[in-house]
Amino acid sequence: MDLITLQNFLDNSSFLLLFITMLIYWAGAAFPRLTWLPTLGTTGVAMANLCMATLLGARWLEAGYFPLSNLYESLFFLAWGVTAMHLVAEQMSCSALVGVVTTPVAMGITAFAALSLPPEMQTSAPLVPALKSNWLMMHVSVMMLSYATLMVGSVLAIAFLVVTRNQDIELKGSSVGTGSYRDKLGRSLLNNNHKQPTVNLAQSNGNGGTAVLENVALDTETVTLSPQRLSLADTLDNISYRIIGLGFPLLTIGIIAGAVWANEAWGSYWSWDPKETWALITWLVFAAYLHARITKGWQGRKPALLAASGFVVVWVCYLGVNLLGKGLHSYGWFF
Question: How many CB atoms lie within 10 A of CB 91?
Fold first, then answer.
């Protein structure tokens, strides 16, 4: 079996496995009594991850360089990273809802790479001079892993917003620096939900006195969630926070490695290239998220909205910049 035949088999198998696995996870969410479905879904994701790892390894052996030189390879490396982080997040949370939101992302990436890109863009080609460096593996692989990790953390934050119906709720899970804030938030929400304002009305009566009307309760409409939803929201909040906490150091290391490589290749650590600028924006978004969680004690809706915006920023940094303009990082079909 030649490389092209093996490649076509593995990339189509990855797509098919992820598509079937996505349906399995969705069926498991719709019919929670079928407890064997999440296990089957985990197995499917692991098989897809193995197929993509085999595909990348075969291209590495055939071409002689780390397979991250074109869009096809980077997309499959990204999908491999998403599935790997899915398995990590699922082990941490013990919740099948992780697969409900992560498998569509991985499936969409593999579908774009395997079914949308023309054959000439899927074949290996000699590296351009700028990429012939040992920094290719160090910088690009770490950046792609950080993208995959941050995407998983962000999509879990989006799932949190869906589960909580975008409402502020009191969370009981533990995370760094949030204890006192969580107690204050809980008391604030409790007071707001059960507030009974006092109205003082002084009216003259026939004897010259006053009649005072006090403690007039005004009904307020509150949104309540079931204990199952609250428990699930708490899990999603914590796992999203921990996964983003893993992706942020990877992003930092990748940016530093890229700066060193840029100095060797172009004579400058930072050139304000569009890709570099958006990498900095991505770093700032998730730095703000972690700062708000650790220092300010944010939990729940506010940091989830920040992480959800980070999902868009990561995609702009990875693909959008290359599609919208040409820069020092534009290689392959993006010219």
Answer: 10
**Alpha-carbon distance values, 238 to 92, 154, 160, 275 (Å):** 10, 12, 10, 30
- For the chain, percent of residues with pLDDT exceeding 70: 76
For residue 142, is pLDDT > 70?
A: yes
Half-sphere exposure at residue 7, Cβ-oriented, CA atoms within 13 angstroms: 22
pTM strictly above 0.85: no
Largest CA distance in the chain: 106
Residue 111: burial class (beta carbons within 10 Å; 0-12, 13-18, 19+): middle
Burial 26-43 (b: 16+ CB within 10 A, else e): bebeeeeeeeebbeebbe
Angle (deg, nearest 10), helices 71-93 and 227-266: 140
* Cβ pair 14, 114 in contact under 8 A: yes
State the Cα–Cα distance between residues 121 and 113, nearest whole angstrom: 9
Return d(Cα 239, Cα 235) in angstroms, integer. Answer: 6
Per the CB < 8 A criterion, the answer to whether 71 and 121 are in contact is yes
DSSP conformation class of 204 = E
Residue pair 123/71 in contact (Cβ under 8 Å)? The answer is no
Q: What is the pLDDT of residues 271-299, one digit of tens each?
A: 787 888 889 999 999 999 999 888 877 77
> CB-side exposure of 84: number of CA atoms within 13 Å?
18
Tell the residue number behind the tokens 């998983």, with chain if given: 152
